[in-house]
Each structure stands twice: as structure tokens, then as C-alpha cells.
Amino acid sequence: MGRLFLVSLEGKIYSCKHCQAHLALVDDIVSRSFHCRHGKAYLFNKVVNVTAGIKEDRMMMTGLHTVSDIFCVGCGAIVGWKYEAAHEKAQKYKEGKIVLERFKLTGPDGSRYWVTHDAHMGGSDADDA
């Protein structure tokens, strides 16, 4: 196995809660109105230190999308998903963007998001982006 090189970000960042690998800048958030099984999720323009899994079609709250799971390269944890293709015209803005699940991140201030009793448990996607 080779040596792992991670990209370090400067500024207000979100990191993997397991290994603290930098994942994204606060300035790259497109929407905070996304939801996943564990509660809140954020849509980002770009992220670092991740790798994408296989593409698959998933029926989400906003329709059918082709997505791939996103894994932290530091520890291998699934931290979200990437929109590869949207099958509905109104959802095309998501293509190429990444959703990170807030539950799996450490915030810019070092805080962690804890799942509460009101977390949405039914699916993963946004309604209000």
C-alpha cells in the first residue's frame, strides 16, 4: 500500500468525523436544505479527499437520479453521494455536485451534528434546494 497524500484546506472547513480528513469549505456550500437518513445534509460544488463508488440509479424524494456513494480517502467511511445525472429537467442543477451528510462531518468550529428524534428516516435527497 502506498503513502496517503491528503489535500489540506484553509479557512472554515468540514472534516470527516472519523479521521479528520478535510472534505470541503463552507464557501462551497450550494444548499443546506438537503436531508438524508441521519438528518441534515449539505450540497457542495466541490469536495476533496474523497473517492466515488459505482454509479447506480436511485429513486429519491425528488425523482430518479444516477448517483455514486462518496467515500473518505482517509478512513474509507461513506460521507455522502455525488449526483452523476438527474433524470428530471428541474433537477439538472444537481449534476456533478456532492452531498455530504452532516452526521458524518465535524463542523468548522469542531462541532459534531448529532441525530435527533426528528431526523428524517425515509430517504436521501432534498426538496428545498
DSSP helix fraction: under 10%
CATH superfamily: Peptide methionine sulfoxide reductase
- The percentage of residues in β strands lies in over 45%
Uncertain residue ranges: 115-124
Rg calculated over all Cα atoms: 14 Å
Shape: globular
Summarize the structure.
The protein has 129 residues and is an all-beta fold. 0% of the residues lie in helices and 47% in strands.
Features:
Metal Binding Protein, Guanine Nucleotide Exchange Factor, Chain A, three-stranded antiparallel β-sheet, Yippee_fam, globular, mainly beta, about 130 residues, about 0% helix
Describe the protein's architecture and organization.
The chain is an all-beta fold. It has a single domain (13-112), classed as Peptide methionine sulfoxide reductase (Metal Binding Protein, Guanine Nucleotide Exchange Factor, Chain A, Beta Complex). 0% of the residues lie in helices and 47% in strands. It has strands spanning 13-16, 22-25, 29-36, 39-44, 50-60, 63-72, 78-86, 98-101, 105-106, 125-126. Strands 5-6-7-8-4-3-10 form a seven-stranded antiparallel beta sheet, with no helix packed on it. A hairpin with a 2-residue loop joins β5 and β6. Mean pLDDT is 86; it is low at 115-124.
